[in-house]
Specification:
With about 375 residues, the chain is an alpha/beta fold. It folds into 2 domains: about 5-30 and about 270-370, Alpha-Beta Complex (Aspartate Aminotransferase, domain 1), CATH 3.90.1150; about 30-265, Aspartate Aminotransferase, domain 2. Helices cover about 40% and strands about 15% of the residues. The chain has helices spanning about 5-10, 30-45, 50-55, 55-70, 85-95, 110-120, 135-145, 165-175, 250-265, 270-285, 315-325, 360-370, and strands at about 20, 80, 100-105, 125, 150-155, 180-185, 200-205, 215-220, 295, 305-310, 330, 330-335, 350. The strands form 3 sheets. It has a 7-stranded mixed β-sheet with strand order 2-8-7-6-5-3-4, sandwiched between helices. Helix 2 (about 30-45) packs across helix 3 (about 50-55) and helix 2 packs antiparallel against helix 9 (about 250-265). The protein is globular, with a radius of gyration of 21 Å. The chain starts with 6 loop residues before the first helix and ends with a helix.
C-alpha cells in the first residue's frame, strides 16, 4: 500500500481533518454527488417537484440500468425505496409467503432483519457454520434438501465484523433444491461482487457512497408474476417490481446516487473490490502489531471491514469516543444487538475505511489505539 494510492478518490470528496474509518455506516459522498443532490433540490424549488422529476427521468433510468448490473438483474427488476431495511420489509410484504413461513439465516444475520422477520410472523432457523461463522455448504445442502424451507436470507457481508459469506455458492446449493435466496447486500454492493439471486436488498449510503435515504430492492424475473402488489390506475404500464417503489420519494437522493454509482463504475467494480480487500488486510496487519487489541475472527474471509476486541481492560465505548473527539478518527461501536445469533457478550470497535486509506492513516490509527 502506498500513500498515493487512490488519491483521486479522496480528492473528489470534501476536504476534512477527520479520518473516516466508518464506511460500513455511511460512506463519504463526492462533491459531484453532493452537488447533484443540491442541484435537483434547487430544480424542484424552481420548476416544481414533478417537473424536476420528469426532467431527471433519463438520469434515473441510467441509474436503474447501472444498479441492475451491480445487483445481478435487469432494469425491470430494480425498485427504489428509502433504505435497505425498507427494501427488506417491502420484499417480505410482496413475496408470496404464508404466515409461519420458514426462513434460514446465518448466525451472523443482522439483528434488525431478524426482528423484522419476526414481526411478520416468519420463523427463522440458523444455518450451520464453521468456527469463523462461514456457512457450511455441505450441511446447508443437507438442510435445504430436508425441507421445509421457504426462503434463505443471507447477509453477504456482515455489518458487525465484515464476514464475507460465499453467496454465489449458497445460491447455487439452494437452487439445487428449489429454494429461493434473498441477499442482503447493504454491506456488499460497492464492496464485493454481488451474485445473481432471487432477490437482493441494498442501500445507497455505504460502500457506494451515495446519499442517505435511498435503498434498492431487486427481484429476479421468474418471481415477478407472483409478487403481491396492487397496480394503481395511474401506473398501467410500469414493470411490476417498480410498483414496489414509494411514490413520495427523495428524488434528489436518487439523482445523487446515480452520480455515485457512475463514479464507482468508472473506477471499475473489480478494481474497487481488490483495493478494498487490500485495505482490509492492511488494517488487520496493523492491528496485529498492537498490544491491547486483537482482530475478531482474524482468519475469517473479510473485505475492508475489521472489528477489534479489547484485551487489556479498555472500555471500548470510551475508546470510540476518544478516537472521535480527541484524535478525530471516526469508527463504529458494534454492540450485541447487531448479530444476536453470534451471542456476542462485549462491544467491538469496527474500522471500515474506503479505498483512499494511506500508510499515514494506518500509522495515525495505530498511534491513537495505543493510547485510548
Amino acid at each position: 500500500m502506498t500513500d498515493d494510492a487512490w488519491v483521486a478518490w479522496r480528492e473528489a470528496r470534501p476536504p476534512t481533518s477527520l479520518l473516516h474509518l466508518d464506511t460500513a455506516a455511511v460512506g463519504r459522498s463526492s462533491v459531484a454527488t453532493l452537488e447533484a443532490v443540491a442541484g435537483h433540490a434547487r430544480l424542484e424549488a424552481e420548476r416544481g417537484g414533478y417537473v424536476a422529476q420528469e426532467q431527471a427521468a433519463p438520469q434515473l433510468e441510467e441509474l436503474r440500468r447501472d444498479l441492475a448490473g451491480l445487483l445481478g438483474t435487469d432494469t425491470d427488476g430494480v425498485a427504489f425505496v428509502e433504505s435497505a431495511m425498507t427494501a427488506l420489509d417491502t420484499l417480505v410484504r410482496a413475496w408470496p409467503l404464508a404466515p409461519g413461513a420458514h426462513v434460514l439465516v446465518a448466525p451472523s444475520e443482522w439483528g434488525p432483519n431478524l426482528e423484522l422477520l419476526e414481526r411478520h410472523g416468519l420463523v427463522t432457523e440458523p444455518i450451520t457454520t464453521d468456527d469463523d461463522g462461514v456457512v457450511d455448504l455441505d450441511a446447508f445442502g443437507r438442510r435445504v434438501g430436508a425441507g421445509p424451507v421457504d426462503v434463505v436470507l443471507v447477509d453477504q457481508v456482515s455489518a458487525h465484523r465484515g464476514l464475507v459469506q460465499p453467496a454465489a455458492e449458497i445460491v447455487a446449493v439452494a437452487h439445487e433444491h428449489g429454494v429461493p435466496v434473498w441477499l442482503d447486500a447493504a454491506q456488499s454492493v460497492g464492496h464485493v461482487a454481488v451474485p445473481p439471486a432471487d432477490a437482493v436488498v441494498a442501500t445507497s449510503r455505504k460502500w457506494l457512497t451515495g446519499p442517505r435515504g435511498v435503498g434498492m430492492v431487486a427481484v429476479a424475473e421468474q418471481h415477478r408474476p407472483d409478487l403481491r402488489v396492487r397496480r394503481p390506475a395511474k401506473l398501467p404500464d410500469v414493470p411490476v417490481v417498480q410498483l414496489l417503489e414509494s411514490q413520495e420519494a427523495h428524488v434528489a437522493g436518487r439523482v445523487g446516487l446515480g452520480v455515485a454509482v457512475r463514479e464507482h463504475l468508472d473506477h471499475g467494480p473489480g478494481a474497487v473490490a481488490d483495493r478494498l480487500a487490500e485495505v482490509g488486510r492492511a488494517v488487520r496487519e496493523m492491528a496485529a502489531t498492537l498490544d491491547g487489541w486483537e482482530v475478531v475472527h482474524p482468519h475469517a474471509p473479510a473485505g475492508a471491514t475489521t472489528s477489534l476486541r479489547s484485551t487489556a481492560g479498555q472500555d471500548t465505548v470510551r475508546a470510540r469516543e476518544l478516537l472521535l473527539h480527541r484524535h478525530e478518527i471516526l469508527t463504529s461501536l458494534c454492540l450485541p444487538w447487531r448479530a444476536p445469533g453470534e451471542r456476542i457478550d462485549e462491544p467491538w470497535l469496527r474500522l471500515s475505511p474506503h479505498v483512499d486509506l494511506t500508510v499515514d492513516d494506518l500509522e495515525r490509527t495505530a498511534a491513537a489505539l495505543r493510547v485510548v
